[in-house]
Amino acid sequence: MSKLLEIRGLRARIANGREVLKGIDLDVAAGEVHAIMGPNGAGKSTLSSVLAGKPGYEVTGGTVRYLGQDLLAMPADERAREGVFLAFQYPVEIPGVNNMYFLRAALNAGRRQRGQAELDAQQFLKAVRERLKLLDIGDDLLRRAVNVGFSGGEKKRNEIFQMAMLEPNLAILDETDSGLDIDALRAVSDGVNRLRDPARAIVMITHYQRLLDYIVPDRVHVLADGRIVASGDKTFAAELERTGYAYLGDAA
Amino acid sequence: MLMTDDSAPFRDAFDQVLATVAEPAWLTTRRRAEMDRFALLGFPTRRQEAWRFTDLEPLIAAPPLPAPPLPAAGGGDGPAPASLAPWLLPAPTHRLVLVDGRFAPALSAGGALPTGVWLAPVAETLRRRPDMLEGAFGDGEEAFAALNAALFTDGVVLALEPGVVLETPVEIIHHTMSAAHARLHIALGAGAQATVVETAMGTGGGWGNTVGVISLGAGAVLTHLHIQAEDPAACHTAAVRAALADQARYEACALITGGRLSRRDMAVTLAGDGAQFRLHGAYLLDGEQEATLSVRADHLGLGCRTEEVVKGVLAGASHGVFLGTVAVAPGADGTDARQLNRNLLLSPQARVDTKPELEILADDVKCSHGATVGSLDEASLFYLQARGIDPETARRMLVEAFAVDAIDAAGLPDALAALARRHLRRWLDGGAS
Amino acid sequence: MSDSATANRPASNAPSAGLLEGIVQAEGYKYGFITDVETEDAPPGLNEDTVRFISAKKGEPAWLLEWRLKAFRRWQTMAPPDWAKLDIAPIDYQAASYYSAPKAASGPKSLDEVDPELLKTYEKLGIPLGERAALAGVAVDAVFDSVSVATTFKDKLADLGIIFCSFGEAVREHPELVRRYLGSVVPQGDNFFAALNSAVFSDGSFVYVPAGVRCPMELSTYFRINAAKTGQFERTLLVADRGAYVSYLEGCTAPQRDENQLHAAVVELVALEDAEIKYATVQNWYPGDENGKGGIYNFVTKRGACRGARSKISWAQVETGSAITWKYPSCLLEGEGSTGAFYSVAITNNRQQADTGTKMIHIGRDTSSTVISKGISAGRGQNTYRGQVKVLSNADGARNYTQCDSLLIGKRCGAHTVPYIDVRHPGAKVEHEATTSKISEDQMFYCQQRGLTAEDALSLIVNGFCKEVLNELPMEFAVEAQKLLAVSLEGSVG
């Protein structure tokens, strides 16, 4: 399997603040699902923000190659159009902007970049209906403004729905399980599982083991104090469940 | 130079002040300059934007003049001590009573002051420590402030050295029967804390024209309750200027019920980073009363916060005016300012003007304002009546609930909150129609 | 920092400072061309003879000349208003020409007689005056500098008894209507600019919709200032008789010129019992260049009177152009149960200044009004909402809801909110809310993470911010307005 994402010695800090990532090494191949776990403050969300190009972070060392390109050299919107998708921990509300309109603008921006024809309204609607069915989402969400007035669960489902529409090569799910009750978690997980694809890599960032019961990863990594301190296959997660993160203090 | 003749009625009083006070030469020079300035400015007119809703006619027609000093302390025609009782904080307080703008020692009561605290009448301060007040009398462009600086006879100075916390509240009673041009100077050093209650009252339709100058050092905290309760024939004009350094906090609460005509102008400059200004207040008016509460908050520092909640209750043929300006200077990023003015009109003749303004010149800000005008909620009234409460009581309950919020939300120390609530109930018993 | 270290570049990732501060001057004002037509101009200057000249040129009856002269004499005693938050260089009212007309004798009788250069101009502006307009279902009156050059669909409208013509024609053909309503909503001496307009107005549009008639198509006027050193002073009068309905659109452009040009229009609306008028404006006068050179001074008085019971007047405006905008479309809510509305989007970029808002005067019982204002400041723009809600002592049951939101883009602009609320009746309910905020970095990043460029993201967020107002515009105008918003903000992100 080819390497989709290669992270080497990545160091980053919050702009003018402390260093949060202290040398991350990570390889993710197409078709793989990786879980990155770790205690609060370990740098999990910083990693996803830096990969997506969120303002307010400064990369102080290391490289990130994505499909052979220098990911860090690209502006955030270009990364997105090149197929990097971030499912936000806190999806942002954009009042007055219709969800469908937003999604079509995003989808067509990506298609333009790839030299594909833009979808017209009919084609777009057709694609939307297919994904809705796939993810078992009601279409009422689509008529509303982006994330405005959505419940926590609806917001997370909307993120996965966008992922289904935008068909990224690399999807980073930032604490997608947080704040979900068990039914919502199951629904979101089912959606993600349906989107597993030999051409697509998924990086899940989570604090909790329980997500991994629903989305079974190929690799599990433990992030502590800005470094990946332990990695293993899916059985490793179960081991972590028993022992907790406590021993990591020594490992790190 | 074009002079108005608005200063003419005050010339004699001015000469009398100059003749009776013994004070540094610089102050006399200052007084003359301020008198000239008042002559130049004249009383504000409704053509001036800031005064377009305020009808000064009751004052300008026959401005009360300062009475000559009382013959002896505590004697003469001063108020009987018992008459003040309902307005006072329970002990312990440092109480200073000003009768017609002059310190009345017999009515006042203080305790020992901690070290690092200066609390004294202005006249005394000018005698003993004139340096403390040098430069404190240039009062900007306002006509009333100019007149005050020209004519003032006394007032109160409270100064705290850095780090000093004055636990006992300072209580200032302005008892006005003729005309009082009093001053209030408060300067808190870095980290100092104080609580001040100012109550304006009086009899016989006088005019209190006060100027307050407040300066709060870094991290200083001033809690300032103002109760304005003159008789319904009185006039009241007050200007308060406050300057806040880094992390300083000015917690103000204003309760306005008195006077035929009253106007309170507050200008708060949040100069330091992280300074905070909170104002909670209410004007409750009846009869022919007109009151204006004008508040300008200038945000200059980074990350300053302002919260203003002002309630109005207008009965009879009264007229309430709220003028609020929140200004954010270029570069004052992180400003978070909220301003709310809510009004209840209780009678067909009552009127309210509200003008909550925003002037924003920085982009990283969160500013909002809201204003509402309405009457008592019919559904609530009916609900209370359906539970057996008579309409009058129901009405009173709802008005009280509406207004008391301004006191509760101010977060005053218990004794002050109790005093303010007592005053509110007194108004409801006597005033609400 | 090692060689391989890459900061998350401000240019791409930081909407706060770098993204919003960097200036890329893009396409700019696309209506800035000049049409080469022969015109007949009044000599510069303004005195009673100028007023007589204009009136004579238009062959007006004596009463109208007298009306103009009365206004002129009134104007001479007045001073320009100074209360708005606007920095206006002194205007030399004697330097401008007060009349400029394309030379075509007494005005075209049909489209065939219209100068082809003018038709081309309107084509370029996207305002087809010919048959293609039929497809759009919009009847158009085009005002070029001072005079109306073409009105389409007159015959079809006439079948329904609807009068839609140039103001000049209305004076000739329907003097009784003009006389009854002219100045009845905006009196001659209402304000400095209204008085000036009353003295020297040259043309404009007139609409009368008879009782019970629902106007079947959008009526539209397109204003264009072309000549140099001219002011434009058009006058619009729109009367909806009992139970009538009309929706009216107004668009404005001007060529790019270095000197400031004055536009002082007056619009009067009258709605009788159960009538409804919707009036929409997309104002895109030349705003001046990025240094504030040139641009239109847009000093406009617009007012509607809801005379009859249950009548409705709604103003919707998208103000993206002009160097200076001074404009307060207002409603006099006289009729019992009448309704007023004001929906506004105002953008100031570069050195533009806008002081705009509304007055809702509640006079009758059970009147209600809604005010939604969205102000967007970018560059060094200064944007002020100024609005008055007044409830008079007989307006039992009056209701007002006002919401003004301001959005700041960049560090050098200003957003100001100046509401005046004056209530003299306890049965009234007035609510006012205002917020000021900047473009949210989180929103920008969210959009960019989904692949939108910074400019597209900004445009999307701003359009969302304005949604409640854009919803009030007729469909074809709303699309145009969205594009204009995007164009107006060009250069505010880089």
Automatic annotation (TrEMBL), chain A:
GO terms for molecular function: ATP binding; ATP hydrolysis activity. Coiled coil: none annotated. Keywords: ATP-binding, Nucleotide-binding. Gene3D superfamilies: P-loop containing nucleotide triphosphate hydrolases. Residues 5-250 form the ABC transporter domain. SUPFAM superfamilies: P-loop containing nucleoside triphosphate hydrolases. Belongs to the ABC transporter superfamily. Ycf16 family. This is Fe-S cluster assembly ATPase SufC. It comes from Nitrospirillum viridazoti CBAmc.
UniProtKB/TrEMBL annotation, chain C:
Belongs to the iron-sulfur cluster assembly SufBD family. PANTHER family: FES CLUSTER ASSEMBLY PROTEIN SUF, UPF0051 PROTEIN ABCI8, CHLOROPLASTIC-RELATED. This is Fe-S cluster assembly protein SufB. SUPFAM superfamilies: Stabilizer of iron transporter SufD. One of its GO terms (biological process) is iron-sulfur cluster assembly. Residues 223-465 form the SUF system FeS cluster assembly SufBD core domain. It comes from the Bacteria. It holds the Pfam family SUFBD_core. InterPro entries: Fe-S_cluster_assembly_SufBD, SUF_FeS_clus_asmbl_SufB, SUF_FeS_clus_asmbl_SufBD_core, SUF_FeS_clus_asmbl_SufBD_sf, SufBD_N. It comes from Nitrospirillum viridazoti CBAmc. Residues 157-214 form the SUF system FeS cluster assembly SufBD N-terminal domain.
